[in-house]
Design goal:
Blueprint lengths: L4 H7 L7 H6 L4 H11 L11 H15 L4 H12 L4 H15 L1 H14 L22 E2 L7 E2 L2 E5 L7 E6 L4 E2 L2 E4 L3 E8 L1 E5 L5 E3 L4 E4 L5 E5 L5 E7 L6 E4 L5 H4 L4
Antiparallel strand pairs: 1-3, 2-5, 3-4, 4-12, 6-13, 7-10, 7-12, 8-9, 8-11
The protein binds manganese (II) ion.
């Protein structure tokens, strides 16, 4: 399915690219069009391959040709942005080295080390695409046992009123849970996430989406696996309102979402 550019960017799958027009728009307008609209507009949009896979294929192909200039650096950065970990890129470069040649391995490792800098395995990745208008707050230690991954809480206004900005790192989501008596309203402000009610299909969340969660409905919410996500959570006040925390959203179910 083709989507308008704006929508593709919101899905985070498109490589909105203007390098062709920026650098060659006057000198070679047809080349600029092919680069920006066809290669990065349509070919990078093919849904049969994930963006992460396309990033890995592109790095492999450039490396195999011995192209280790700024275009490879760009594609290494893009690979990291779409979820390629340091361990994965190290394994990829090692693998391709065996087929493409030892000096290419060294050249690409030198670039990759600039991109995957001091990241430790499992460390929190640096936040990307967060709201500039709301605070991230503090690590959500109080509820960490009900979350997979790291999240952050920032009370908004009077903490007693239960309005909070919740920030989820990529892959972070809360356990299945129920808001008893009072419900909850989620106002999505940045990044991309998921919301699911028990027995229903998952819903994609992007900034501007508002989710009204009725009391007694079992559900979970959180980030997509390769995107940070922020929503404001409003607790709907009610006499004797409580939250009941249930089982985690299993990796096999969560990782299958796309
Ligand atoms: Mn909830």
């Amino acid at each position: 399915m083709r989507l308008p550019a704006q929508s593709r960017m919101r899905k985070g799958i498109a490589m909105k690219q203007t390098a062709g027009r920026d650098q060659l728009g006057t000198f070679a307008p047809e080349f600029a069009h092919l680069n920006d609209d066809i290669l990065f507009g349509e070919v990078w949009d093919q849904e049969a391959l994930s963006t992460k896979t396309k990033c890995m294929l592109t790095v492999t192909t450039l490396m195999a040709q011995g192209i280790t200039d700024s275009s490879l650096l760009y594609h290494l950065q893009n690979a990291k942005k779409h979820g390629v970990t340091r361990a994965e890129i190290a394994a990829l470069i090692t693998h391709v080295t065996m087929y493409a040649g030892w000096p290419k391995g060294w050249a690409v490792f030198n670039l990759a080390k600039q991109v995957w800098t001091e990241d430790e395995e499992g460390a929190v990745t640096s936040p990307e695409g967060l709201s500039e208008d709301f605070p991230v707050g503090e690590p959500n230690t109080a509820y960490a046992k009900y979350f997979i991954g790291n999240s952050y809480l920032a009370p908004l206004g009077d903490p007693q009123l239960g309005a909070r900005n919740v920030t989820f790192e990529p892959g972070c989501r809360n356990n299945w849970h129920v808001h008893h008596k009072g419900g909850q309203v989620l106002i999505c402000i940045a990044g991309e996430g998921w919301y699911q009610e028990w027995g229903k299909p998952v819903q994609k969340l992007t900034p501007g989406d508002v989710v009204s969660i009725a009391p007694e409905v079992k559900h979970w919410h959180g980030a997509m696996k390769d995107s940070w996500f922020q929503h404001i959570a409003l607790a709907v006040p009610a006499e004797g309102a409580t939250n009941e925390w249930l089982e985690p959203v299993e990796d096999k179910d969560y990782l299958a979402l796309a």
